[in-house]
């Protein structure tokens, strides 16, 4: 098991309004689960083991929602981030993003725009040279906003966006 500490610079944060509006839908899917291991210690688990915890749009939104909620939680001392099943995270679920099927959210162009577009509700500026503005980036950078240590417990495969959690 490889442990990686996530650094914590201070940054301004605007909550993802879209994720908050869809929070009921995302909670029902249990794509990201949160368990209290003991007082002040939370385990956040990526929970899509059948897809090796690859990231689709709903998974990105769930990660953002959970990180935003934990940022303001009183009494929190540490977060352990891990993945269920055989892999920590195998990156972007390209099949679901490019699938035109309604079961995968329909139009691939709309899904790519949703993931990479820079709408104002995702805008977050933490210095004059760098703006983190899209959903894909936000899912990784929100962990830096949490004022307690976040330990990424990596196991199995860790590719693409999954490695972002290792180095963030």
Low-confidence stretches: 1-24, 121-130
| CATH topology-level name | 2-enoyl-CoA Hydratase, Chain A, domain 1
CATH architecture: Alpha-Beta Complex
Order of helices and strands: EHHEEHEHHEEHEH
Proportion of residues in β-strands:
15-25%
Inertia-based shape: globular
Distance between the termini: 18 Å
Fold and architecture overview:
With 168 residues, the chain is of the alpha/beta class. It has a single domain, classed as 2-enoyl-CoA Hydratase, Chain A, domain 1 (Alpha-Beta Complex), CATH 3.90.226. Helix content is 35%, strand content 21%. The protein has helices spanning 17-21, 23-29, 57-71, 94-98, 108-116, 135-145, 161-167, and strands at residues 2-6, 32-38, 41-46, 78-83, 124-127, 130-132, 150-154. The strands form 2 sheets. It has a 5-stranded mixed β-sheet. Strands 5-6 form a two-stranded antiparallel sheet. Helix 3 packs parallel to helix 6. The longest helix has 15 residues, at 57-71. The chain starts with a strand and ends with a helix. The model is unreliable at 1-24 and 121-130 (pLDDT under 50).
């Amino acid at each position: 098991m490889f442990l990686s500490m996530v650094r914590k610079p201070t940054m301004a944060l605007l909550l993802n309004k879209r994720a908050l509006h869809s929070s009921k839908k995302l909670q029902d899917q249990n794509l990201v689960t949160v368990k209290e291991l003991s007082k002040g210690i939370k385990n956040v688990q990526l929970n899509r083991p059948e897809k090796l915890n690859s990231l689709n749009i709903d998974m990105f939104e769930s990660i953002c929602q959970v990180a935003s909620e934990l940022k303001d939680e009183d009494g929190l001392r540490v977060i352990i981030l891990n993945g269920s099943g055989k892999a920590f995270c195998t990156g972007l679920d390209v099949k679901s993003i490019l699938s035109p099927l309604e079961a995968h959210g329909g139009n691939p162009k709309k899904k790519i725009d949703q993931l990479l577009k820079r709408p104002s509700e995702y805008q977050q500026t933490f210095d004059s040279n760098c703006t983190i503005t899209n959903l894909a980036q936000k899912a990784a950078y929100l962990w830096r906003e949490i004022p307690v240590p976040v330990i990424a417990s990596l196991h199995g495969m860790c590719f693409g966006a999954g490695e972002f959690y290792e180095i963030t």
